[in-house]
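hey m, so remember when u said the C-alpha cells were messed up on ur end? i reran from scratch. heres the input so u can diff it against urs
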Amino acid sequence: MDTLPQELINKIVLCLERYSGQSQAPIIEQQGDHSKLPPYATISSRWRKAVEFVTFHRLSIKSHELSQLEVMMTGNRPKYLKRLSFAITLPEYSEESCGRVESIEEQRCNDETFTQAIIDLFSLVRKWEDAGLVHGLRLQLHGAYSPTDLRDWNQIRLEMAQHKRGIDIFEERWENSYLHLSRPERIPTLSSIVYLRITGHIFRKLAPVVGPGLAAFLPNLQSFYWEFGEVDDTSINVESRASFARMLNQTKLDKCCAAEITFNQDPASDQRVAEPSRIPTGALYDPFSVSLRNFSQNLTSLVLNGYVDSTLFWPPSLETSSMPSWPTLKKLTVFFNMAAPSGEWYFDGTPPGEIEEQWGGSIVQFRDREDAKTLNPFVTAFAKAVQQMPALEHFLLETELGHDIGYWEISYYAPGIKEDGHDNEDGAVFKRNVAALTKAHHVIIPDLRGHGDSGKPKAGYNVARLAMDLKNLIEFFGFRDGTIKAIGTSLGAAILWSYSELFTTGAFSHMVFVDQAPLQNYLEDWGPEFGNLGCNNLEALNAMQKTLIANPKEAHLGTIAACLGYRSHPRPRDPRSDSSQWEDDEAFFLAEALKGDGWWYGKLMADHTANDWRHPIAHAFGPESGSETKVLVVASSRSGCFPAAGPLKVVELVNGGEKEGLAKGVTVDWGGHWCYWEKPEMFNALVIDFFS
C-alpha cells in the first residue's frame, strides 16, 4: 500500500464515506459525531496524512472547546487547517434574569468573556504560526450567544400563560446590548489569517467596531466580509457608527483588496415617520461615510450596505483632504438606505389619505420619486468619484423604495464585462439564467417572503402564504391569464402547486418544476425511492430546525453540499474543495441563506415537508381539470435531495397516468438540485426550447 503515490491515496480517501447516510455529500462537507475515517489512518503513514487532510481541513468549534482543539491539533495537523469557524459562548444567566434587561455589569462581563475567547483562539493560532505550521487561514467569527438564549421560548410562553413561572422578556433582555472588545491590546497579532468573516447580527449583536478592531491584529488580511446590525436605541447606534469610523481610520490594512460590509437595518415601514439622525451631535458631516471613503481607495472590490451620504464618494467642503482616487477599484456596489444618515429622505412622494392603523404599526410606503435637494448632491458626488476610478469594470448604486414599490438603481458595465444580475437578492441564485431568458421574455425574480431582501415577518411561514404573495404580485403587474411562463425550483415548485390549487392554472401558459417531488416525507405508499433523501420524517425535521437556530451556517452548508451536483455526486473532473469555484459557490449561497432567520426557515420547512401535493396536482393539472398549462419537469440523477423518480411522478399526475399529455419530464446528469446554477447554458437551452 505504501507504493501508491500520496496523490492517489488522497483521491481514494476523498471518495470514502465519512459519516453514515451522507455518501451524497463531498467528504470534506460531511458532518457528524462518529467518523468512519480513523481506521484508514492506521493503514500507513501516507493514509494517515490523507485522512488528516480531510479531517482537519475545515473545523467548526465553540469557545469552550478550545482546550480540546489544542490537544487534538498535534504534529503537522495545523498544516491542513484552511477554514476555521469560531462561535463564542457567553455566561448563562438565571431564570430571574430572564425577566429584565442586562445590567451594565452583565454587559461588561459578556464583553470580557467575548474578548478572552478571541485572545485564547488567537494565542493558540499564534503557537501554530511560531512553529511554522499554519498559513492562508480563513477565519469566520460566527457570533456569540449564551446557552440560556436557546431555551424553549414556546414552552416558556405556555408556562407563563399558566402562571407556572415569572415573566420572561426573551430577546428584549439584550436587544440594546452590543458586544465589544475589552482591552483589545491583549490580543496577539496573527500573520496567517488572509480572510475574516464576521456575522455579528445572528445571535447577540457584535459592535461594528469589532470588525476593524480585529483586523488591526491581522496584517496579512487580504479580504473580509463583515455583517452587523443596529440596536433599538438610536443614541447607541450613533456612537457605534462613530466608533467604527474612528477605528477604521486607525487600522492599516495595506494588503486588503476586497471588502464587503453590511449593516442590517430594517427598512422604514411607515415612511410618514421621520428617520432619526445617525450623525454625532455637533459633527459637520458623517464620519462613518468619510472613513469608508478613505479606506476604500486601496481596494479592488467594495460591496457596502448601509446608511451613507455624499461624503462616501467625495469630501465635503468643510473637510480638509486631498482629492480622492481609487486607482485599482474594479467593482463598486453600494446599497444605500433611502434615508440619509442625517435623517433626511433621498426620496419623496404623496402620502396616502386615511390609513387604518394596524396592530404593530402600519405599512405606509409612498416615496417613489427622487428628492432633488438631497439625492442630487449624493449622485453628483458619486459621479465625481467614478471619474477617479480608471480600472472600474462595474458599479451598482441601488436602494429599495419599499416592498410594494421596487428599487431605484444606477448601474454600469465596462465594454466586454458581462452583466450578471444583482448579487444581493434572493433571486440572485438565478443570475446565470437572466441574460438568456430576457432575450425573449420579461423576467421577474422576486425575493420570497422571509428571504433575501424581502421583509422578515414572524408569520407567514407556509407555502399557501407564499402562493398568496405570488397572487398579489401577478395582480400588481396586471398580467393577463394564460400569458405567464413560470419556473419553480424546489420550494418554488410547491408554491406554484399551491397557487394552482387555490386559484387554478389559468394564469400560466407554461410551468417548469425543477427537482421537487410532490411529497418529501415518507409514507406507506411513498418511500425512499420517491421522497427526500434527508429531511423526510419528524425526527429529521426537528434536528434541522434546531441546527438552523443554533448553528445556521452548519445547516446551510449541509444544504449546499446536497444541492450542488459536483458535491453530492462528484465526478473525476468536477471542482474540488480547494478550487475557486467550490469556494465562490459556497460563499455566495451561504451569504444568501444567512440573510434569513433560521427559526423562520425551520417553521417553513415544517410546512413544506409535510405537504402532500399528489392529489392537488392531479386535481389542478390533470386531464379532467380543464387546465391548458404545459408542464416541464426537470429531475436530476445527481441530486442530493431527491431520487429522480420523485419529481418525475408529477408528469404522471398531470397526464393522468398516460404516456402523452400536457406534461413531459427530463432527467439531467449535468447538475444536481441546483442544475440551473451549475450548467446555466444547458438549463437555459432546455427551458427556452420548452417555452417556444
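this time it looks ok to me. The chain has 22 helices and 18 strands. if urs says something different then somethings off w ur setup not the seq
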